[in-house]
Amino acid sequence: MSRKPLILQSLAVAALAVLGLTAHASGAGPHWGYHGSHGAPAQWAELDPEFETCAKGTRQSPIDIRSTVKSNLPDLYFQYTPVAPTIVNNGHTVQVNVPRGQSVSIGDKTYELLQFHFHTPSEETVNGKHAAMVGHFVHKNVAGQLGVVGVLMQPGPMPKNEAYAPIFDHLPRPGERITVDDLELNLAALLPTDRGYYTFEGSLTTPPCSESVNWIILKKPVALGTDQIKAFRRLFNANARPVQPTNGRVIKESM
Length: 255
Ligand SMILES: [Zn+2]
Hints:
Layout: E1 5-9, H1 11-18, E2 23-24, E3 27-28, H2 44-47, H3 53-56, E4 64-65, E5 69-71, E6 76-79, E7 82-83, E8 86-89, E9 94-97, E10 103-106, E11 109-119, E12 125-126, E13 129-130, E14 133-140, E15 146-155, H4 165-168, E16 176-180, E17 185-186, E18 197-203, E19 211-218, E20 222-224, H5 226-235, E21 252-254
Parallel strand pairs: 4-12, 5-21, 15-19, 15-20
Antiparallel strand pairs: 1-16, 2-3, 6-10, 7-17, 8-9, 8-16, 9-11, 10-11, 11-14, 12-13, 14-15, 18-19, 18-21
Bound molecules: zinc ion (ZN).
């Protein structure tokens, strides 16, 4: 099977990159990022009135996961199948867009997978500790509510995680959009086999920091190859928002 990378470079995105601006899903907006004295997380709310929730919100993400309440939570049912993805570098992260039809069910709610993307180190911490990376699998249900499944990632003994290789072998540069002919990504293989999880209410971890996101963090990390983590860090040295106050939110943990 030939695995010929087909690189489609959007002219609009490339032009914005040249101007030093950023492009994200909702189009070009104010410059925000993770470093420096302007546009770093502490200033996000000042960049645009639409970002005020980043400072004023009371249920912001990420958070430090500790003092959990063990609960009888519904199992997670992932209806994930192999897909042909499109991999995009949007200037903030590498995002993998997937065709429709992939979903996760939690109790009586079903959320459809829109995309997943990565942060390093992990944004959420467990008892104060970051994982090397995290994958955020962003889903939406028919009511428009977001459900994000977090997959923590740690360096493992194998040189590479084969399930993630289609992505980490083709990491796009800023502004690039990559589709690979004949490439199948087995979505189910991206998840740990143990599906125990933490769950709590939170927000988007990037501007506009919108709240009412249902967060589900899988307890068991997946192992990545150290070279895979290095390859991502060559593009994004650090792209994690600091942890936010929990403000009394209950963190439930499956038994
Ligand atoms: Zn994220």
